[in-house]
Amino acid sequence: MLIHNLSEKNTILNQFIAELRDGVIQKDSMRFRRNIERIGEIFAYEISRHFDYTSKKVITPLAETKIDFPNYEIVIASILRAGIPLHQGLLNYLDQAESAFISAYRKYESETKFKIAIEYAASPDLTNKTVILADPMLATGKSMFNAYRSLIAKAPTKKVHLLCIFAAPEGINYLKEHIKEEVELWVGVIDEKLNKNSYIIPGLGDAGDLAFGHKL
Fold first, then answer.
1. CATH number for the domain including 90?
2. pTM of the model
3. Please, are residues 202 and 192 in contact by the beta-carbon 8 Å criterion?
């Protein structure tokens, strides 16, 4: 598994990640969503470096020139509900992409023991297409893995990119252990660890609640 860690170089991404973590700024849910969306745009730009390109003719009012255009058939798949702003950010740049959505959540058996439940998935045909599977948080890795398995079971894909903003080492190791196919993992930052409740430390809290309000 090839891992791209965007935090290895200092960019404006640092500011957006800092604002997502900041407990005071988090009170503004619109700003929280917008920061996730902007990070999605950064990811889209970085991933586009890995597309195939073809030169095409463009006619300006003054002359004719050639520009390299990306060749891509992409499906952006997001895990609900926290993945919605990230999905929008990716779609802002990859505006010809199709979309897929998956519902994955922790179904608790006790305070610290849970299983990942997937109850909804809507996806176009993925045959020979590049899939970008996005979720803001990669904690245990089980939600991402279960979503990944449910997607690739539908059709043979051309390429799969897994994408998260905050990743725990435990989640990365889980994906490396369980995904045998060639995939690329894109992370905004790798955090320290998981706590006893499998939340990322330092992390930021529940991304879905911060974006859309606390659930019952």
1. 3.40.50.2020
2. 0.91
3. yes
